[in-house]
């Protein structure tokens, strides 16, 4: 029931969001139509940070409580993280090519986002190569904690590293009020989409666990 | 004898007999320095700009090799099982492994570093000692995080592949800080070097503490 409501809400909000972004939003003075990517790019970026927080939180909770529910949350957040970091990097590259003239630069923000994606990826690879369910949860949890501790060091080192080489600033002055309205709708739409995807992914994780359990039970019975 | 010293002693005795870990790290480090000499024009002016990078590529990749070796040694004859059966706090096991990994990495680096100096026509003066100091800090950071990650990767299929996949993204701050500090020393402009050294020291302290606390979850059955 909850997922149905969320699903319908996502559908309605996304249609409204697309209308707002492509028809309602005013054209930006210097960048023109390209600036509309920004309404996707920012929610993608924020969703990827949210995934990182969720993964760190779920890892700590699993190590304390030893409840597989937290591990399912961590694994789902990891997958959402890789989804949204890649989407934010891709949408950013699409925007950067016409505006900066380059797909990619080792700017602090870009580097951090890329590194965040790599960490999500290694978390998921670790899980994929662990055989047992409990090992997956425990070692995934430990790696999640280690990765979470790494984030402030990454942030500091990359900031210091890049401040020696000034880079183009991503956002200049304030946004137009109409643009803010579009941005807020876009945020709401993507927040609900995130909740919906996470809810579905966790439901699938539960089913996967049941299937695995049943497979073991059948094998043991033979 | 305290458990930490006992573990280090055991590892050193094994290493004295097999000489596997240090020799492979040493060979690998020298090979990385060599291949970089071919990859970039030697004696060009850019050479001094990339020199710190080559040194730390050599150190961090050689460290991964050594860490893989040190865990493979424990897994091979179920030695890890034996260690776990000993009435020793799990955290102390971790500290012991860090200490022995750190020792072997330092031994390899003590030989690689002069070769680096000779290849790059640097001088054996105070600069050299400063770089050695940075190497000690950076290596401690790599050993601190590498020892727990290698134990994690030992549980997976494809152990040797998994360690770099886990370790490289997490050691990015160490590599940035060490390379920046080294190039500051080489260029003679050491203004602001202390923040990099603090970062390296902070990284080691934080990871030693966190890993000490969570290590029992890694080895529990």
Describe the overall structure.
The complex is a heterodimer of chains A (about 220) and B (about 220). Chain A has helices at about 1-25, 40-65, 70-100, 110-130, 135-165, 175-220. In chain A, about 80% of the residues lie in helices and about 0% in strands. Mean pLDDT of chain A is about 85; it is low at about 165-170. Chain A has a single domain, classed as Four Helix Bundle (Hemerythrin (Met), subunit A) (Up-down Bundle), CATH 1.20.120. Chain A contains 6 helices and no strands. The longest helix of chain A is centred in the C-terminal third of the chain and has 45 residues, at about 175-220. Chain A is mainly alpha-helical and about 220 residues long. Chain B is mainly α. Chain B is about 85% helix and about 0% strand. Chain B has helices at about 5-20, 20-40, 45-75, 80-85, 90-120, 125-155, 160-170, 170-185, 195-220. The longest helix of chain B is centred in the first third of the chain and has 30 residues, at about 45-75. Chain B is globular. The chains are: A mainly alpha (about 220), B mainly alpha (about 220). The interface of A and B includes residues 129, 141, 157 and 161 of A.
Which CATH class of chain A applies here? Mainly Alpha
* H/E element order of chain A: HHHHHH
Number of domains of chain A: 1
Taken from the alpha-carbon principal axes, the silhouette of chain B is: globular
Which band does the percent of strand residues of chain A land in?
Answer: under 5%
Strand count of chain B: 0
């Amino acid at each position: 029931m909850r997922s149905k409501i969320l699903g319908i809400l996502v559908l309605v909000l996304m249609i409204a969001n697309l209308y707002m972004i492509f028809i309602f939003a005013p054209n930006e003075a210097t960048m023109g139509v390209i600036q509309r990517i920004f309404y996707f790019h920012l929610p993608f970026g924020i969703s990827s940070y949210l995934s990182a927080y969720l993964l760190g939180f779920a890892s700590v909770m699993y190590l304390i409580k030893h409840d597989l529910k937290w591990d399912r949350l961590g694994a789902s957040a990891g997958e959402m993280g890789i989804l949204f970091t890649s989407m934010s990097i891709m949408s950013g590259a699409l925007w950067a090519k016409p505006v900066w003239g380059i797909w990619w630069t080792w700017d602090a923000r870009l580097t951090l986002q890329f590194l965040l994606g790599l960490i999500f990826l290694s978390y998921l690879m670790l899980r994929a190569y662990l055989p047992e369910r409990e090992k997956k949860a425990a070692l995934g949890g430990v790696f999640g904690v280690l990765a979470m501790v790494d984030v402030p060091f990454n942030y500091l080192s990359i900031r210091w590293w890049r401040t020696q080489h000034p880079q183009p600033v991503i956002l200049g002055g304030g946004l137009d009020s109409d643009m803010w309205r579009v941005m807020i709708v876009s945020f709401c739409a993507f927040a609900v989409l995130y909740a919906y995807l996470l809810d579905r992914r966790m439901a699938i994780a539960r089913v996967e666990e049941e299937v695995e359990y049943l497979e073991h039970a059948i094998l043991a019975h033979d | 004898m305290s458990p930490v010293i006992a573990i280090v002693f055991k590892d050193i005795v094994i290493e004295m007999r097999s000489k596997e870990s240090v020799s492979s790290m040493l060979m690998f480090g020298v090979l990385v320095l060599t291949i970089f000499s071919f990859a970039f024009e030697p004696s060009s002016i850019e050479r001094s700009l990339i020199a710190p990078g080559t040194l730390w590529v050599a150190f961090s990749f050689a460290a991964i090799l050594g860490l893989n070796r040190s865990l493979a040694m424990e897994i091979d004859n179920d030695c890890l099982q034996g260690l776990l059966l000993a009435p020793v706090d799990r955290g102390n096991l971790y500290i012991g492994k860090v200490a022995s990994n750190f020792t072997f990495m330092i031994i390899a680096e003590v030989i690689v570093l002069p070769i680096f100096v000779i290849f790059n026509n640097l001088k054996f003066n105070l600069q050299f000692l400063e770089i050695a100091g940075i190497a000690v800090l950076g290596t401690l950071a790599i050993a601190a995080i590498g020892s727990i990650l290698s134990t994690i990767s030992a549980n997976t299929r494809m152990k040797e592949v998994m360690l770099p996949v886990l370790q490289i993204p997490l050691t990015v701050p160490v590599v940035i800080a060490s390379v920046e500090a080294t190039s500051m020393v080489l260029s003679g402009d050491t203004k602001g070097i202390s923040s990099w050294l603090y970062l390296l020291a902070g990284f080691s302290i934080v990871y030693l503490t966190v890993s000490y606390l969570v290590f029992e979850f890694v080895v529990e059955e």
